[in-house]
Amino acid sequence: MTEPPRRGTAVIAAPFGALVLVASISHLLEIEVKIETSGLSAPSTPLLLEAERQLNAYFNDPQWQFSLALCLKGTTYQKIVWQELCAIPPGSVKSYGQLAEELHSGARSVAGACRANRFPVIIPCHRVVAVHGIGGYCGAVTGALLDVKRQLLRHEGYESP
Asked: If you average pLDDT over every residue of the chain, what do you get?
């Protein structure tokens, strides 16, 4: 899918800081996790308003099922991994190695697909952990983003290492 032109951006509050939402008229293009809450900006398009509504529904109920149009740009392998991430139920986790075994690939390939995920929270890469520890989140292996991952897992009822 060719990425549609950007039509709007919003910065919405989240329990751990903020989420930057970028959308075209018809698809969500990406989400960025921010630790800071400065610079919030209200959604200005119907799709951004719906994305905010659904994200808030998830923050109120971890069982919420997202139904947003996403512009998935990635390799065939990445898209398969992202589909598998969405199949992990809230409150559950899989290790990078478990997913790799299921997909007949390697743990590093799974980690790379998680890192390439442009829709954290909606495509729940936070549900993939290392065998000994939490693993990474949004490309970070240390720092505040790992606290976001722990918060999301706790929100879903999983106590992370």
From this structure: 94
